[in-house]
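Note on ligand handling. Small-molecule inputs were canonicalized before submission; formal charges were left as drawn, and no protonation-state enumeration was performed. Where a ligand contained multiple stereocentres, the stereochemistry in the source SMILES was retained. For pyridoxal-5'-phosphate, this procedure yielded the string shown in the input block below.
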Amino acid sequence: MNKREIPFFNYPLLFNQRRDEYMSALEDVHSRGAFIMQKDLEEFENSLQEYLGVKYAIGVADGTMAILMSLMAAGIGEGDEVLVPAHTFIASAAAINHTGAKPILVDCGRDHLVDANSVKRNISEKTKAIMPVQLNGRVAVMDEIEEFAREHNLIILEDSCQALGAKYKNRFGGTFGIAGTFSFFPAKTLGCFGDGGAVITNNEEIAFKVKMIRDHGRDPNDGKVKLYGFNGRLDNVHAAILLLKMKYYDEDISIRRKLADIYHSRLSHLERILLPPPPESGDHYDVYQNYEIEADSREALREHLSENGIGTILQWGGYCLNDFDNLNLDNDLPYTKQMTEKFMMLPMHHLLTDDDVNYICDKIEIFYG
Ligand SMILES: Cc1ncc(COP(=O)(O)O)c(C=O)c1O
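Structure output:
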């Protein structure tokens, strides 16, 4: 096969693929002057509610704000500890910190998701909540975590920013606890053309508080400020784009799942890399936000792929939260620490073709001989 150029993510194509439809949505919103909290936001929220089968979906500025606002609405604050995996974006811990609570890092397992045993080891009298991070488009095995949370009266609040539409035992990521949170960063499975996010919940009080917090603490019924909030709204124009993209969401996910299947069938015989589980795996329905592997001789592999026109990325720049010395979060995290030496992401998005993925697999097979 001739040399190809496969960037890790193709941002221009994200827009150009359905350019005409996006342009007419943009034209429509702008010509109506519908910029802040207009019907497009409400329609998008309704469509997300319907898709996930939840009572409330609230569009907010981004995934980080979604986490912060739902923690605040759940009453997490000063003196509380929240258990969160070390293999996550800084946003998860930053949101906890901004409420006044303390993030306590827990380990992940071979699936790169929260390890229930590590959760159990790290509980203290101050633990108020567990924040499973449903990473890479996969929902963690939640049974033990739910049981443990019930026994110890802990809140579950999911950072499901990377897992819109992913399921475990037929339940959607984001619906296991008091609230779930999503990011619509452009490279996400449902990405807008800027920053965006949402909180989902079945709890009326949480929903009402998040609605107030995202809009300066104002009560939507009488406009009076009832608490200190933020300007944390999802822009109406982003909501219009997201509403349009919802139409294609299942189609886009099925492309990702097909590509994951190709990666799996082409690479699972290689002993020097560890792959994520394939699409048809037991109780899980994965949406493959990312295709994160563990690779021996990682840097040499990345260089070899780069020479062949293939972009790869290390999630979080190659650091987990325990690596940020200034934040003082280090803990007992054996799997996370060994994984950090090997984790990397191969290209994975709905704009790739089967041929692209076969080309990437050819080059990986050549590398490992
Ligand atoms: C796991 C996780 N949590 C939180 C966030 C924060 O979302 P945002 O970038 O929309 O603020 C992200 C987004 O990158 C994420 O991947």
